[in-house]
Amino acid sequence: MTSLASPVTLAATASLIGDVARANILCALTGGRALSAGELAFHACVSAQTTSGHLAKLVDAGLIVGIKQGRHRYFRLAGPRVAEILETLMGAADLGPARHRPVGPRDEALRRARSCYDHMAGRFAVDLAELLEARGMVVLSDEGGSITDLGMAFFDRLGLALGEAAGRRRPPCRCCLDWSERRYHIGGRLGAALFAHAEGEAWVVRVKESRALRVTRKGEEAVAGGLFACVAVDAPVPRPEGIRTSA
Amino acid sequence: MTSLASPVTLAATASLIGDVARANILCALTGGRALSAGELAFHACVSAQTTSGHLAKLVDAGLIVGIKQGRHRYFRLAGPRVAEILETLMGAADLGPARHRPVGPRDEALRRARSCYDHMAGRFAVDLAELLEARGMVVLSDEGGSITDLGMAFFDRLGLALGEAAGRRRPPCRCCLDWSERRYHIGGRLGAALFAHAEGEAWVVRVKESRALRVTRKGEEAVAGGLFACVAVDAPVPRPEGIRTSA
DNA sequence: CCATCGCTTCGGCCTTCGTCGAAGCATCCG
DNA sequence: CGGATGCTTCGACGAAGGCCGAAGCGATGG
Q1: Which residues of chain A, if any, have pLDDT below 50?
Q2: Are residue B141 and residue B220 in the same domain, yes or no?
Q3: Which residues of chain A neighbour B98 with C-beta distances below 8 Å?
Q4: Gap from A205 CA to D8 C1', in Å?
Q5: How far apart are CA B87 and CA A137, in angstroms?
Q6: N or C: less crowded end of chain A, CB within 10 Å?
Q7: Nucleotides of strand C under 7 angstroms from a protein beta carbon
């Protein structure tokens, strides 16, 4: 019935990601935007023809999809599942003894705020998640998360489109372990809705040619206190000092 | 602060799993039991010295841990995180077009019921999960799962040790996409507790030298109807015909 | 104490696969 | 229609790494 997930197929998938050039390609696409083959070649630091071969393999494996537009061909991740796989594998990197810490300076922007396929990650997202949890909107744990009744009402008043999740009782939300913060951020449908809302309200703007997000002043203000001022909330406020945006 | 999860470390981790011999080793350890280097060499179908090299790399990366006992050295997965990574990667195998379906005969036992590090998988586990969801004990979705109040009370009466999960409000439970069934089974703390309970009550017994589990008659009976007869449940019974155990 | 067993290290063979140069198509523009 | 751009295919080179034979080391057991 289903293709057997044997060790050899596991190895095939893993070795596909296990090449530095392909890992660079996948990481570049984790930003969520579709990129052309040439741009991916630049990100992977290899020639165009080498990149072409890698892209063919990735498409063949179903990790990415490519659409042809004119003389360009744009690629994006095949879906949230793939992004999740990559994030999970990212988190596995710090399983071993923390030996090398090549903290580059250009990584600071990524640590602060970045897009993670369809949701946000980095300090900004982690702080937001912890604030929402402190306010009793969501429950987060290492096994997943869920939206409380209070949270459902709040997100509804905020205007978030949670889609079919609203129909389910106690809709869970995926919470990823942030690899740069080792704390949780919110993914899944809620994470995607939060990202869309934040982008629509210009709380964050995408930085060109990068996964990094720039947190605007409006975003800082909205999240630091105004996020909850825009709707009436009768929730307990156990941590009124707001969150750090570290701008 | 934290080791940077760059594309190169992603590739390093992935390529570690991307070798067939190492993938075999990891899959063998996914059964949950510690295995000696010799047994792992047998599973990986390579010589002892080659296996030794692979094990050193896996230990070095923090994916597995080894303890010395006499002249044997036993290895096990470093933790649930690793098992989760492997399961996630397993699920990625069916992303591409389903082309090869080498459904071996010996896989049938694994498809029926198997251990997955600390919880159960296969048809038995999937049916059990769906039954629990139909009874309103848990809520499952592609973004995670959560235990309902009804479920908390039920599992408590059943005698499951959910540990610290009981302290949390709406404790979530991890639900994995079963690679052999493409449906959900229950993992996380609840999954581990269910497995321990099922093993303690002799509903399932481990098959030697394999991840496979044999579902006993007692287990079939208990799950088919007696599981809910042993405790008083005032829940709606939308699907009273029970589950298939396909023994 | 010697034989056996289990695991590890060392050295060298060999396959695999990532890489780029050159050439071949497809597309767009002037 | 010709030149430029973007992507792909082909072929050969070369480094990386998995593999095993041989030998070494520690533990067990008679």
Answers
A1: 1-3, 100-101, 105, 166-167, 232-247
A2: yes
A3: 2-3
A4: 35
A5: 30
A6: N
A7: 5-10, 17-23, 26-28
Q: Is the dihedral of CA A163, A167, A168, A172 positive or negative?
A: positive
Residue keyed to tokens 């990068």: A210
Subunit contact A85:B84, Cβ cutoff 8 A: no
Shortest distance, CA A96 to any CA of chain B (angstroms):
4
- Residue labelled with tokens 């969150």: A243
ipTM: 0.81
Measured CA to CA, the distance from residue A242 to residue A220 in angstroms comes to 10
- CB nearest to B13's CB, from A60, A89, A148: A89
B198 and B117, same structural domain?
yes
What secondary structure letter does DSSP report for A222?
Answer: I
* Number of independent structural domains in chain A: 2
pLDDT of residue A163: 63
Task: Report chain D positions within 7 A of protein CB atoms.
Answer: 5-10, 17-23, 26-28
Whichever domain contains A46, its CATH number is 1.10.10.10
The predicted-structure confidence for B111-153, as pLDDT tens digits, reads as follows 889 998 999 998 999 989 988 988 888 888 777 788 888 888 8
In this complex, the answer to whether residue B54 has its CB under 7 A from any atom of chain D, a nucleic strand, is: yes
Which two structure tokens, joined as six digits, stand for A179? 């690899």
Whether residues B98 and A11 touch (CB distance < 8 A) is answered with no
Look at residue B227 in the predicted model and tell me its pLDDT: 62
> What token pair was written down for A105?
């300076």
Pairing of strands A144-147, A138-141: antiparallel
Proximity of residue B8 CB to strand D below 7 A: no
Q: What is the pLDDT of residue B46?
A: 97
Under 8 Å CB pairs connecting chains A and B tally to 240
* Count, residues in chain B: 247
**What is the residue-averaged pLDDT of chain B?**
82
pLDDT of A209: 75
Nearest chain B residue to A58 by CA distance is B96
pLDDT tens, residue by residue, B69-81: 999 999 999 998 8
pLDDT (tens digit, 9 = 90+) per residue, B46-72? Answer: 999 999 999 999 999 999 999 999 999
The residue range of the domain holding B113 is 107-229
Nearest C-alpha in B relative to A141: B172
Q: CA–CA separation, B14 vs B108, rounded Å?
A: 28
**Residue A172 counted as domain residue:** yes
CA angle A95/B212/B49 to nearest 5° reads 55
B24–A7: do the CB atoms touch at under 8 Å? yes
